[in-house]
Amino acid sequence: YPCPITWSSELPLEEKRRKMGKFIGLRGCDSPILLKSEEEILDEARRARLTEEEMWRRKHYP
Q1: Which structural domain, as residue segments, surrounds residue 44?
Q2: 3-state secondary structure of 41
């Protein structure tokens, strides 16, 4: 491709390699998947449960 790529100066070299590899179809150059910790999953579930409980409380006891 004769089109130049303008990279952000803040982008690390590994990120540039990953993006270029993904563009040309190299395996293993997909975007990294960030896994949540057990604590983050529990916190997210707790917040969802509290939100749902609040919704039901407002619906049944306006």
Answers
A1: 33-62
A2: helix
